[in-house]
Amino acid sequence: MHVLDELEDEPPDCASSNLQRGMPREVTEDRFMKTWFPGTGDRQWNDWHWQIRNRITDAARLHAILGLCKEEMAASREVANMPLAVTPYYLRVIVENAHSPLRKCVVPSSWEHLISPHELTDPLGEDTHSPVPGIVHRYPDRVLLLATDFCSTYCRYCTRSRLVGRRRASCFGNSWKQGVEYIRSRPEIRDVLISGGDPLTMCDEHIERLLLELRSIPHVEIVRLGTKVPAVLPQRITPSLVRILRKAHPLYLSLHFTHPHELTPACKRACELLADGGIPLGSQTVLLAGVNDDVTTMKRLMQGLLRFRVRPYYLYQCDPIPGSSHFRTPVATGLEIIRGLRGHTSGYAVPQYVIDAPGGGGKIPLLPKSEQGLDALGNLVLKNYEGKLFTYPEACGPMTRSIFCPEDAHESRPDL
Ligand SMILES: *Cc1c(COP(=O)(O)O)cnc(C)c1O
After folding, report:
1. Among the listed residues 363, 351, 233, 368, the one whose alpha carbon sits nearest the alpha carbon of residue 298
2. Same domain, 248 and 334
3. What is the pLDDT of residues 84-123, one digit of tens each?
4. Exactly one of 319, 328, 339, 353 is catalytic; which is it?
5. Dmax of the chain from CA atoms?
6. pTM of the model
């Protein structure tokens, strides 16, 4: 087969090579299937169990399909922080969009072995906020429940690289008995965020059991579930899954998206099934150097998500996990991106940019500075999205206090 013949045995140097060599550019799903999964039909391809069973998990296979360079090959043979796994579906998305920056998100790189001084295995201090296994309780009224450590596809920048991918089974998830008991014993917990790993890699029955258990706790008002499945394994969103999720209302989903290349027809169908099930959909995106760290890409992603009925929620500064320096942008880049979105497009398309503070401080929002202080007349000067200045009469009277007002503003009282 000519695509295989073209491939040399020795991978080339990363600096010198065209990195998309395994497959020709515009490759249809059919062609991709026939080449790499001979004998497979649409029925199998569209079955999420088949996608999980056929994940690409070794360097040789990844090299055959994508064409790795030397350093990638070495890094894939000996992964540093977490296992290598990509669904056939997601790999096809990468191949289809030749040079897709998404490649960097799933292909191990030799940079992963470079540990910078400020990087930590548990940068968010989750383990120290864990009263029982599988629970992170950082905020007063809500907890994170880590339901499984399994993902269908591993993101190389994963904030929980220390935990994920320890087991190969996907159906059952972790034992969450202690976690559920903890939530039951704490009446202040009104919001449970199920995460992992990817909780939607568990089988229907187990997801249903967990949701029913949480729903049996009277003080749990809302349940949220974080997943990347619509991007990496949209086949997982089946009518029967949606029926189960609907029974847990009010249920919210936070969907992990990285780049507009993920917004395929299959992904659209998955999001629409969920939205039609009455599930409010939010998105989470990690800001990644060389992947989505420019206004144009981010605007395309956020606008595309709104078309799929997903409301952008958080844009995260990349957490300092071990071996992630090649993914991190300056904070100024994130602020520039927010500046490039706010006012220039729908307010709904603007996520909240946050840093999850190392050490366990929680999510801290970051905004480009729009307030510029008071002018001579005591008006607050504001900068709009075009960089033009406007004023608003700040209330610096006797009855009000404002950080913008001069000290003496509060002291002038009318003579009574
Ligand atoms: C992100 C997070 C939450 C949820 O935070 P929201 O701002 O309410 O979305 C809850 N617990 C932990 C530990 C988290 O990291």
Report:
1. 351
2. yes
3. 999 999 999 999 998 899 999 999 999 998 999 899 999 9
4. 319
5. 96
6. 0.92
